[in-house]
Specification:
Helix content is about 25%, strand content about 15%. It is an alpha/beta fold. Among the domains are: about 270 residues, Alpha-Beta Barrel (TIM Barrel); about 80 residues, Golgi alpha-mannosidase II (Immunoglobulin-like), CATH 2.60.40. The protein binds alpha-D-glucopyranose. Alpha-D-glucopyranose binds next to loops.
């Protein structure tokens, strides 16, 4: 079936962290051929999840100071992941299954090993001299240290400026010193970026995630940020007025999007870095989504979820299309976040099912993170053993968690190394591998994986879920999150019991005169059955009904 032109709105996107999805050559690191070998899991087969697109975290050559988010060649493929021919095979195999391919574009900064930066640091003249943000030191401190151009901090701790001996100037880096920020004010930089986008579009790519897009422009005068008194010395110690969200971004973003729009049916999703829902709404456009992360970090509470949605709806209004994300490669996995420390993992799994029902029935485009469909939890890896630069640089001033914990190998089956690799996996497999793996959950109709499959099917069959409007429903129990989705001829009612006790709920008036029928529940009732009051939800039951 041909995908809708607005698949970016109706579809479900699945994020793959390529290092950790599947290793085909035994080096312990996942690769593109490994992804191709596991496409049945994602789409095109009867037992697939049925996702519409995959987003690959960066696959470009990188020295991995920030695991691919420091790019040394924007149009190449890192040999550890494969070759360009492997990439083309991946795109063809995905397209044959009706799966779109989204790449991660890291355009705020490159690697310090990128040829552009190598050339730029050689001196103040030459074609690349102005491709990064270089500044003289404004003088020396009384203790004979060079003053920095302003007070900006790096997100991973330390100042955002590093002195370069070769060029005799400071350069700016919002993240690591090995991730120098590109100078978006230079038209030659913007032209080179557009060439990168066109190259990947010509290779069949359907969309791009724009890494930290709202940091592309900095204040023209590089004014210092206001300081928050008493907030330490890290990123959070400043109000980030001048190092992101600059007005020039809007025009540059439009230029970049116009290149993407040269080919119909292509999209972008911008990662709003450290921003609010109102900022997210202001940057969204048809075909161009924004991650606002309003839902990340919520406690396990129906009221907290309801309030987050209410606030976001107030910013987004009925026109702007949101994205829904509970986990990604930068955040602790949500099944672990929602675990009840006093209960066993079955309670956490039941909560993960509720979360899945939420994610796949909320208004907006859902983004799933590999492994969440089997409710993977965090790996226990202390900061002292981290690969993640954020954790390695963690300090009292800029405390940080270890993102490796959310980036572990996918457990495909039981047995040594979970079918992920024949070699030594770069990160350990989870300790509950024997029962928490894809093959085992695929056989179990009650598993989290089976529920994801059913939810994706229900969503695929419902225009109201894919495109409809949304309104909160008051069912009379604050522990039940309930809402209604509506399109021209159907409405869908969703009730999620966040509590580990039964909950009696009131049904809303059916839009078409009723009655409500069950579309899916995580408990006993059968699809197609009529719903009549009183409806008692079981503990941690998710119920989806239609009229
Ligand atoms: C984004 C990425 C993150 C990376 C950072 C710097 O936030 O998601 O993984 O470390 O940008 O590129």
């Amino acid at each position: 079936m041909a995908a809708a032109a607005d698949w970016w709105r109706t579809g479900v996107v699945y994020q793959i962290y390529p290092r950790s999805f599947a290793d085909s050559n035994g080096d312990g690191v996942g690769d593109l051929a490994g992804i191709v070998a596991h496409l049945d899991h994602l789409g095109g087969a009867s037992e697939s999840l049925g996702v519409d697109a995959i987003w690959l975290s960066p696959i470009y050559p990188s020295p991995d100071f920030d695991f691919g988010y420091d790019v040394a060649d924007y149009t190449g493929v890192d040999p550890r992941f494969g070759t360009l021919a492997d990439f083309e095979r991946l795109v063809a195999a995905c397209h044959a299954r009706g799966i779109k391919v989204i790449l991660d574009l890291v355009l705020n900064h490159s690697s310090h090993r990128h040829p552009w930066f190598r050339a730029s640091r050689t001196g103040r003249d030459g074609p690349f001299a102005d491709w990064y943000i270089w500044r003289d030191s404004p003088g020396q401190t009384p203790t004979a240290r060079r003053r920095r151009p302003n007070n900006w901090r790096g997100f991973f701790g330390g100042p955002a400026w590093t002195w370069d001996e070769t060029r005799g100037q400071f350069y700016l880096h919002t993240f690591l010193p090995q991730q120098p920020d590109l100078n978006w004010r230079n038209p030659a930089v913007r032209a080179a970026i557009k060439d990168v986008v066109r190259t990947w579009l010509a290779r069949g790519v359907d969309g791009f995630r724009l890494d930290v897009f709202n940091t592309f422009f900095k204040d023209a005068a590089l004014r210092s940020n206001p300081v928050r008194p008493g907030a330490g010395g890290g990123w959070g110690s400043q109000v980030h007025l001048f190092d992101r969200n600059r007005p020039e971004l809007v025009g540059a973003l439009a230029e970049l999007r116009a290149v993407v729009d040269e080919r119909p049916g292509r999209m972008t999703v911008g990662e709003l870095f450290d921003g609010t829902a109102a900022e997210a709404a202001s940057y969204a456009a048809p075909g161009h989504l924004i991650f606002d992360f309003a839902l990340l970090g919520l406690p396990w509470s129906a009221a907290a979820f309801a309030e987050a949605i209410r606030k976001r709806d107030a910013s987004f209004g009925p026109e702007v299309w949101p994205t829904n994300v509970l986990s990604n490669h930068d955040q602790p996995r949500h099944a672990g976040r929602y675990d009840d420390p006093g209960a066993d993992a079955s309670v956490g799994d039941a909560r993960a099912k509720i979360a899945a029902a939420f994610l796949l029935t909320q208004r907006g485009t859902p983004f799933l993170y590999y492994g969440e469909e089997i409710a993977l939890r965090a790996l226990a890896i202390p900061n002292s053993e981290a690969f993640d630069p954020q954790a390695r640089r963690s300090s009292a001033d800029a405390p940080a968690w270890n993102r490796d914990q959310a980036r572990g190998p996918m457990p495909w089956q039981s047995g040594r190394d979970g079918g992920f690799t024949n070699g030594q996996p770069w990160l350990p497999l989870p300790p509950d591998l024997e029962f928490r793996n894809v093959a085992r959950q695929a056989r179990d109709p009650e598993s989290v994986l089976s529920l994801y499959r059913q939810l994706l099917r229900v969503r695929r069959e419902s225009q109201a879920l894919q495109r409809g409007s949304q309104e909160a429903a008051n069912v009379g129990d604050a522990d039940v999150l309930a809402y209604r989705r509506r399109d021209a001829d159907r409405s869908v009612f969703v009730a999620l019991n966040f509590a580990s006790r039964p909950a009696a709920i009131r049904l809303p008036e059916p839009a078409r005169g009723g009655p409500w029928r069950i579309s899916l529940t995580t408990h006993r009732r059968k699809p197609g059955d009529l719903l009549a009051e009183p409806v008692i939800l079981a503990p941690l039951e998710a119920l989806i009904a239609y009229d």
